[in-house]
Design a protein that fits this description.
This protein has 255 residues and is an alpha/beta fold. The protein is 34% helix and 20% strand. The chain has helices at residues 13-17, 39-49, 57-64, 73-88, 91-99, 132-138, 200-209, 214-226, 242-248, and strands at 2-6, 25-28, 52-53, 103-108, 111-116, 146-148, 156-160, 163-167, 181-187, 190-196. Helix 3 crosses helix 5 and helix 7 runs antiparallel to helix 8.
Length: 255
């Protein structure tokens, strides 16, 4: 069995369309919308191709009509781009986002999968990077062989608490310094982290044509080309240790 795993597409249709992998099953870990200029084809693709999908925090915000104001960095970009998401999505596309579960389980090829956008403790908003001890604590009472997550836009796989944690990275807006679309393939139990170049100029043309402030367009252009925010707009730093996660649990969401 060959499984395609995608996450954090963020309305970047050229990036998603560039992924041309044969597969038997597609897993989608959320955040189809915000930031990019083409939410509708991305949501429509997931509706038609994702066999198992979960809701991301941006999917939730768009489907619920939640405005975002102020802030810097990616939170600023969320506030700027979200109104276009509402206008661009068809009613059935918004309804599909709204009905997505926040967690989903599936048994594939004899392995038990748990899908969440962020972490099992907080499926929409909690950030946890490549932290084996932190994941082991989160997964202590989770019954699964493979836990698939997104949210951080950082591609990794690790073993924690006898389980495999897979983050395929971001298809549409990587933040790890590599602007290529990120995804993962699982075949016969073997996980391969993959990247692919895509026609970023097509995405940038959509950004340029969007009714967004010049500042937002320049920030998005930089992220799409470089894979991180400009130095003048430092990216929010999610807590990296389990102790810091406990302290930050009630902090405002990092977009």
């Amino acid at each position: 069995m060959r499984i395609l795993v995608v996450s954090d597409i963020h309305a970047n249709w050229p990036a998603l369309a560039a992924i041309d992998e044969p597969h038997d099953v597609c897993l989608c870990l959320g955040d189809l919308v915000d930031y990019g200029p083409d939410p509708s084809p991305c949501v429509r693709w997931a509706m038609e191709h994702a066999d198992h999908a979960v809701r991301g925090n941006h999917d939730h915000g768009v489907a619920q009509g939640i405005p975002v104001e102020g802030g810097t960095g990616f939170r600023y970009l969320t506030g700027v781009t979200r109104p276009q998401m509402w206008e661009a999505l068809a009613p059935d596309e918004r309804k599909w986002l709204l009905q997505l579960p926040v967690t989903r389980r599936a048994t594939l090829g004899g392995a038990r999968f748990l899908l969440v956008h962020a972490t099992p403790r907080d499926p929409l908003d909690e950030y946890l990077l490549r932290d084996e001890a932190g994941w082991a604590k989160r997964l202590r009472h989770v019954e699964a062989d493979v836990v698939c997550v997104g949210h951080s836009h950082m591609q990794f796989k690790l073993k924690a608490g006898g389980k495999t944690v897979l983050n395929p990275g971001s298809v549409g807006l990587p933040r790890d310094g590599d602007p290529r679309a990120a995804y993962a393939i699982i075949e016969d139990g073997r996980i391969e982290l993959k990247r692919i170049s895509y026609p970023v100029e097509e995405t940038l043309a959509g950004v340029d044509a969007a009714p967004w402030p010049r500042k937002a367009k320049e920030m998005l252009t930089h992220v799409l080309r470089v894979g991180r925010l400009p130095a003048a707009e430092p990216a929010p730093q999610p807590p990296s240790t389990d102790e810091e996660m406990e302290e930050e649990r009630d902090a405002p969401e990092i977009e």
